Amino acid sequence: MGLAQCLVAAFLFLLVLGLTPAQRVVTVQQGPLHRVRGSHVTLWCKVSGYQGPAEQNFQWSIYLPSAPEREVQIVSTVDPSFPYAIYTQRVRGRGIYVERVQGDAVLLHITELQDRDAGEYECHTPNTDERYFGSYSAKTNLSVIADTLSASMAPQVLTLTEGDAVELTCEVSKSTTQHTHLSVGWYHLRGAGEHQAEEVLTLSKDFILKPGPSYVQRFLVGDVRLNKVGNTTYKLFLGGVKPSDQGQLYCEAAEWIEDPDKTWKDISRKQTERTSLTVVSQGRDLSVDIAAAENSLSEGDTLQLNCTVEAQKSDSRHFQVIWLLNSMEVARVDSHGVLTWEEEYEGRAKLGQLQALKSSNTIYALTIYEVGLRDSGTYRCSVSEMKTPGDLHGIQTNLSSGIQVNVKPIGLGLRATLRSRIATVRYGQSFELVCQVSANYTLEEVPAAVRWLFQPSPPTSPYHELVQVFPNGTVAWVAAQSHFREKAQLMKADTSFRLHLHSAVAAAEGTYQCEVEVWRRNVLPLGQPAATTSSNPVGIKVVLPESKVRVSTEDSSVEVASSADTAIECRIVFAQNNSQLAVTWYLLPPLADGTPLQIIRANYSGVLEYGPEFSSPAQKSRFLSQRVSSNVFWLQILSANLGDRGRYYCVVEEWLWLVDGWYKLGEGTSGRTTLEFKLPERELQVDKTNRSLSAREGEEVTLPCLLQGARLPGTHLSATWFQVKKSGLDSPLLTLHHDGTIQLPQQGRAGRLYLRRPTPGDFSLTLTRVESGDAGFYSCQVQEWQHQGEGQDWALQASARSGYTQLSTIPPESTVMSRICSSPSLLNFILCLPLVLILLLALAVSCWYCKYRKSKKGNITGNQLMELDGNGEVKTT
Fold first, then answer.
1. Is 389 in the same domain as 402?
2. Within 10 Å of residue 589's Cβ, how many Cβ atoms?
3. Residue 872 lies in a domain
4. Less Cβ crowding at N or C end of the chain, within 10 Å?
């Protein structure tokens, strides 16, 4: 067929469609909806398929739970007298009103939801067509729930220097009985108006951290963080504050609920009081440099360091200088010139071994006489400008580059070797580390000091000091390591130092090292360190207590009737009394590839977490984990259906509190419990042939499901179609109930699935507009039901499952029309070509016509110049 024929055929097809009357359909927001008392609520309603004017009218009514059959009129877009008396005042005061989104779609607004607003809402559109054809109203349910969301933060007034850090705490809680999620966000107000608020950092309802546009880079480097502590505490950490952070900070919490159409709606929002933040800005004209007379020294030499400050009008400004060695403070000279030594260096300064001077307002010097090995490292000076000499905070700070100083050891051969008899210890067992020292001289005759260092496992930071033992026997513990102090015993014997740790805990696992200093007696009473050495590292592993949990591994089966409730049991054979148990339930579907699906996990605190395949509200309401006794867990399955078939099992974890936290000791896996369905004595005859079909995307395909043979008289049939997911789980697509109603669990395909039933025994499924995601395995389940009599239920008489149909999808065929439509430039050319040809033709005709008129005008003028003389001859005038 040529292109012209295709276009003519398409035109005729569209013409036929235009003559066919459309069916009127009214659609309202899907319910039930849960909304918070006092909130602003909107319900949408739209109409399609009408033949009347473009602007349609809408009328809203409610059916209250107390009188579900009685219509109570609320508001109308056309009739001001439509509302009943109980709604008249709220409608007139705009407490309830209708917003027209477009001609055929509106929103019903309830500005402050009340308890009496709960009920079934109906949207009605008066007929504007020539005849009634279709639906003219639709209903949805609205529930009113209490607002339990709370958010609080203590208001503060903070003044920080640029570069400082701040931490703010927000307490958020809710007690809504429905399944809801929380989002918690921090916002910044630069000015007084709330419209200027910008997002700092938000923990979304999906548990995703999202920084605001102005805070993305700081979030990536870790200067903006949100930490959740416990169930209700959210902490915002803002590091390296900037002048742009000045203003007001507050926390906002929102509670979200998932509506039946799978969209999430925020049903409540709460803001905390605000914290005022003032940031003192730092200037940028301060330059700092450091230099050394010599940076390669031997023990006993003198180290001379100079720090130079460059700044405009430096003589009238006030500076504080801090000397640093390996980022640790050595000494500081404040803006008054007062010198303060760090505690570690104070003794050496009193002995005249250290000196720090302010030579001028821009030159500062640090001198170390008789340097030792411990004086090796990277030196820097930090300079802060103070607004006035008495200020505690600088208005700007700059740090010099680092200068490396190396001190060589006056050949003492000092060495330290660290060892332990055992490298792996059980939790609660004691162990001992021995630091053995050797040198080229008699160690018993000189004072020695030892420093014990520790790095936790896994390494999260460099080695840090635990304790130091001085030559006079004084012991100095680091305050942050108090948990070691309570369990440690320090000993010295001849040339060895010992660290004995009692009752090892998990926090004691890591790498240990000892550092030894040998002192001189002949310098001054307290002595001077002559040499320093570090030992080899020794790793200690702490093995947690062995798990005692034992789970029954016997396989079993459970038989259940369709739509009935059942429970899968997980029995604990043995567990320690002082441990806590967490249980995770898994399912192996019949067609699974060996990978189990996580259904639900209940941790040792009872907090539930659903797997991806079971996280929908419908699945969460059907699968529940319950501890029915000290040694029995149940997985409850409500309204079991054929899609729940498979083998179930549990994994039980044993957790124990070990001084510094909860630790998982081990786990046990149960046997498999097969879930089977009670089948009626009689089996329906359904075609069980396995088939393979292919369909091109965009086309239509029919999947066969044929009932063979006769059925009992007076019975009704039902059928359910399933698609087998990649996980092996049966996913119901469409159910035809015995009363003729159709249920579509997957709303995304609702408009593409049809049961056309040309005969009573044909339950074939038609899938229109095939998509690539439709590929997979399909099967149907047919059941026969019989009514048991007046006031009795319907009873299942027979059932059967069809074979599997494998559907493969083919990409759409490339045609001339599809190529044209897929190429915007070619399509535009074809659409514009007739217009261009018409314009060219019009231009040609216009040119010809002008030329013709000009020629004709010339002929007329020539005729006017000719006359006849008296003799009848022609003469020209």
1. yes
2. 21
3. no
4. C
Q: Percent of the chain scored above 70 by pLDDT?
A: 88
What is the CB-side half-sphere exposure of residue 588 using CA atoms within 13 A? Answer: 11
Residue 610 burial (CB < 10 Å; 0-12/13-18/19+)? middle
**Full domain range(s) for residue 122:** 25-145
What is the number of structural domains in the chain? 6
Mark whether 804 and 690 lie in a shared domain. Answer: yes
Question: What is the predicted pLDDT for the residue at 376?
Answer: 92
- The amino acid at residue 256 is W
> Considering the domain boundaries, does residue 829 fall inside one?
no
Quick one: average pLDDT of 272-298?
A: 83
As a whole number of angstroms, the distance between CA 499 and CA 485 comes to: 11
**Same domain membership, residue 108 and residue 35:** yes
End-to-end CA distance of the chain: 70
Which among 773, 782, 600, 650 has a CA at the least distance from the CA of 706?
Answer: 782
Q: Which residue has the tokens 């000290």?
A: 630
What's the pLDDT tens digit per position in 101-124? 999 999 999 999 999 999 999 999
Instruction: Count other C-beta atoms under 10 Å from residue 416's C-beta.
Output: 22
Q: Where are the alpha helices (DSSP H) in 757-870?
A: 816-822, 824-864
* CA 414-489-525 angle, 5° bins: 50
Tokens 């390669």 belong to 296
Three-class DSSP category at 126: coil
**DSSP secondary structure letters along 278-346:** EEE---S--EEEEEES-SEEETT--EEEEEEEE-TTGGGSEEEEEEEETTEEEEEE-TT--EEE-HHHH
Answer yes or no: do 640 and 658 share one domain. Answer: yes
- CATH classification of the domain holding 232: 2.60.40.10
Round to whole Å and give the CA distance between 815 and 799: 46
Of residues 4 and 408, more confidence is placed in: 408
The residue ranges of DSSP E strands in 93-134, in sequence order, are: 96-102, 105-110, 119-124
Are residues 804 and 687 located together in one domain of the fold? yes
Q: Is the pLDDT of residue 238 over 90?
A: yes
- Could you read off the pLDDT of 401-445 as tens digits, one per residue? 999 999 886 656 788 899 988 889 988 889 999 999 887 677 777
